[in-house]
Amino acid sequence: MKKLQILGTGCPKCQKLTENTEIAAKELGLQYELEKIKDIASIMAFGVMMTPALAVDGVVKSSGKVLSPEEIKKLIQ
User: Fold this and answer.
1) Residue 13 CB: number of other CB atoms within 10 A?
2) Is 73 a catalytic residue?
3) Catalytic residue among 4, 6, 7, 14
4) Active site residue: 11, 44, 45, 59, which one?
5) Domains and CATH numbers, the chain
6) Residue 42 phi/psi, 5° resolution?
């Protein structure tokens, strides 16, 4: 099971990244757990300075932009 983490304070961009991540995971048929990390200290612990960010199994794959479902699929397969 993949652990997909959205790092962000809950802004519209963070919500869009969450939606796109769920679309990508469902289209791939992945078994996944989606976690939203909104605490600034926790986000900074990942080394992320710009949100939203996407981490897969604890590894940051993208930060500072909203990825499309197609871009996300490449990162989570």
Assistant:
1) 15
2) no
3) 14
4) 11
5) 2-76 (3.40.30.10)
6) -65, -40
